[in-house]
Specification:
Blueprint lengths: L1 E7 L8 H12 L5 E7 L22 H11 L3 E7 L7 H8 L8 E9 L4 H13 L2 E11 L4 E2 L3 E2 L4 H19 L1 H4 L7
Parallel strand pairs: 1-2, 1-3, 3-4, 4-5
Antiparallel strand pairs: 6-7
C-alpha cells in the first residue's frame, strides 16, 4: 500500500500547524487506498544544513541526516502542512528539504497551507524546491486563511469546502505516488 507522510512544517511554540496536520491525518485515515503517518519536524532534530558534501552526492556523514534520510526514503509521497512566514516557507521546513536529495526523487507532494493570504506564497516557493528535488507537486492545494479558518487567529475551525479540496489533493498525491513507483524501483540487476 502507498505510504504518505504528512510533514508538519512548523516547530514554533503554540503553532497552528499541529491542529491543521491532525485535521489532515484524521480525514486521510478514513481512506483505504494509502497509509498516512505524521512527520513532525519537532521530532527530527536537524541543525542548519551541516553536511560537508552536497546532498545530491548521497554521502551523509551525520547520524541526524542518515535518520532523516531513512525516514523520508520509506514514503511514496507527502502532504506538507506549512504556514507562511514573511511571504515564504518556514526555514525549518526548507532546511528539512535541503538535507536530502535522492530520498525525495520520484515521489509526489501536495500542500496544505495557512496564513493571512492562505499560505499560497510559501507554497509557490516550495513548488520550486520540489521541482529541483524531482518531487512531482500536484495541482490541488488547500489554502487556509487565518482570518476565516481560525477563530481569533488561533483555534482551527476550517470552512466545510476545504474538505473537498483536501480530498482532491489526497486523490492526486496517491495517484501520482502510485504512478511514479516504477521510477523509484531499483533497475533490473541492481542490488
Amino acid at each position: 500500500m502507498v505510504r504518505i507522510g504528512i510533514i508538519l512544517g512548523s516547530t514554533r511554540p503554540k503553532r497552528n500547524g499541529e491542529a491543521v496536520a491532525q485535521w489532515v491525518l484524521t480525514h486521510a485515515a478514513h481512506r483505504d487506498d494509502a497509509h498516512f503517518e505524521l512527520l513532525d519536524l519537532r521530532e527530527h532534530d536537524l541543525p542548519h544544513l551541516d553536511e560537508p558534501v552536497p546532498p545530491s552526492a548521497g554521502r551523509y556523514q551525520h547520524e541526524h541526516t542518515r535518520r532523516w534520510a531513512a525516514t523520508i526514503d520509506g514514503f511514496d509521497g507527502f502532504v506538507v502542512v506549512t504556514p507562511e512566514y514573511n511571504h515564504g516557507a518556514p526555514g525549518v521546513l526548507k532546511n528539512a528539504f535541503d538535507h536530502l536529495y535522492a530520498e525525495w526523487n520520484n515521489k509526489a507532494v501536495g500542500f496544505v497551507s495557512y496564513g493571512s493570504a492562505g499560505g499560497v506564497r510559501a507554497v509557490e516557493q516550495l513548488r520550486q524546491v520540489a521541482g529541483e528535488l524531482q518531487l512531482a507537486d500536484v495541482r490541488q492545494q488547500v489554502a487556509l486563511s487565518l482570518r476565516t479558518d481560525f477563530e481569533h487567529y488561533s483555534t482551527f475551525a476550517p470552512a466545510e469546502h476545504h474538505l473537498r479540496a483536501l480530498s482532491t489533493m489526497l486523490d492526486q498525491v496517491i495517484a501520482w505516488s502510485t504512478a511514479l513507483a516504477p521510477l523509484r524501483a531499483p533497475a533490473d540487476g541492481a542490488g
